[in-house]
Design goal:
- The chain is an all-beta fold and about 425 residues long.
- It contains 1 helix and 34 strands.
- The strands form 10 sheets. It has a 4-stranded antiparallel beta sheet, with no helix packed on it.
Length: about 425
């Protein structure tokens, strides 16, 4: 019989003592062992912003390589250039009269495209000028009526242009084609409660959903099939997930959520065999939602909680316990939202491997750089900066809906090659 005091590692069980419920914090031999985070100086931050509310399980801060966005009011969203600094006198808004914005998302392949999930069953699309909006915008460039239910969340396809997954209040998931202004596909009606998170794998042929029914599901959207369905975090609050991995290596699904008590957990799953977790880790006790972030170039994982002041980070490995604790960034200022910027935004000359933005309850947006200290940084550190996704579409929506798969294009981060 399996004793109740066991944690699952791969497909074998190992007993743990009460003091071993979290991953060991003993340093591991790794080039990321001394990775550390540093917030930008106050003069480089944005202050005085208003942080409104969106649907409860969503991250209120979103960003791409050029802009960041956050909810301003019930039906308004602020979109600002990443170059913004200081206390802004005027903030242009996307204004949705007489309807609520439940979520919003930037395109994965076009920095100048943002979409909003609206309470009237529509998804509104806006084209952002290269310098950002100069004044309030009251009409979208394009509107797609998904159905007559509230649209609760959005997730753009990672490689195909103009494809976005939309979750509605009736637990349905629709695949919207902006090119034809229509709903092209719908996922099987398998959710028994509200989905709290949708994420795409790197190839863009699988979707993972976390749900209030405490089940993690994998979908092949074009085959209209559920690839796998397993019980995940058993707490009452919503879970989140993302695909993690290292370039050209096995891709896993990482979910974060709550146990039956107040324990916050992360679970690692192998999509090739979802019969058991690869590993399950109790992180701590808390009440705020966790958000996972993946560096798919380096195999790093970052975990940040809404309302927390810290960001934990781990290295994904092929050896047990698979998620190797590295360290954590700590701050006395809690984050209402946090987002990982694309690799194109890091400063490779300073061995900066990741850059986050966080927004505080006081309305300050603070960049945080994560650097690997090197004694000699006068030359390009190619082991820290493999070629990365250029964030341009590798195929059209027609190609993807027609069954095509094309890998993303890679570019060098070496400043000499720019």
């Amino acid at each position: 019989k399996t004793h109740s005091r066991f944690v699952l590692f791969s497909f074998r069980s190992y007993p743990y003592s009460k003091s071993q419920k979290m991953l060991s914090k003993k340093p591991r031999e790794s080039k990321f062992r001394h990775l550390f985070g540093t917030p930008f100086q106050a003069v480089e931050c944005v202050t005085g912003l208003k942080v409104g509310a969106i649907q409860m399980d969503a991250n209120p801060l979103k960003a791409n390589g050029s802009f960041f966005a956050l909810p301003w009011g019930t039906g308004t969203v602020a979109v600002l250039p990443l170059s913004s600094k200081g206390n802004l006198a005027e903030v242009p808004l996307l204004v949705h009269d007489e309807k609520t914005v439940n979520d919003f998302a930037f395109s994965s392949t076009d920095d100048r495209l943002i979409a909003t999930a609206c309470s009237d069953g529509t998804v509104d699309f806006y084209r952002i000028p290269s310098e950002g909006f100069a004044s309030d915008v009251t009409n979208p460039d394009q509107r797609v009526q998904v159905n007559d239910k509230r649209i609760m969340s959005l997730s753009f396809h990672p490689l195909a242009s103009d494809v976005v997954a939309a979750v509605d209040a009736s637990k349905g998931v629709s695949l919207v084609d902006l090119n034809s202004s229509s709903v092209k596909l719908s996922l099987p009606e398998s959710h028994k409660a509200a989905p709290t998170c949708l994420s795409w794998n790197a190839q863009g042929d699988l979707l993972a959903s976390s749900c209030k029914d405490k089940v993690l599901r994998l979908f092949d959207p074009r085959a209209n099939s559920v690839v796998a369905s397993v019980e995940d975090h058993q707490g009452a609050k919503g879970a989140q997930n993302t695909f993690v991995g290292r370039a050209n290596d096995t891709e896993y699904v990482l979910s974060v959520g709550f146990g039956k008590g107040s324990d916050r957990q992360m679970n690692l799953w192998d999509p090739r065999n979802m019969a058991q977790k690869v590993v399950s880790v109790n992180l701590d006790s808390g009440s705020s939602t966790l958000f996972p972030f993946a560096d798919r170039d380096l195999g790093l994982v970052y975990i940040a909680g809404k309302g927390d002041g810290n960001i934990r980070y781990y290295e994904l490995g092929s050896d047990e316990p698979y998620l190797h604790y590295l360290n954590e960034y700590k701050s006395k200022d809690p984050q209402s939202g946090v987002v990982l910027l694309p690799k194109s935004n890091v400063d490779a000359s300073k061995c900066e491997v990741a850059r986050f933005l966080k927004v505080t309850p006081q309305g300050a947006v603070v960049p945080i750089r994560f650097e690997v200290p090197r004694r000699e940084n006068t030359f390009f550190q190619d082991d820290l900066f493999p070629d990365t996704f250029d964030r341009r579409a590798s195929m059209s929506s027609d190609e993807w809906f027609g069954g095509g798969n094309k890998p993303g294009n890679k570019v060098s981060l070496n400043p000499e090659n720019k």
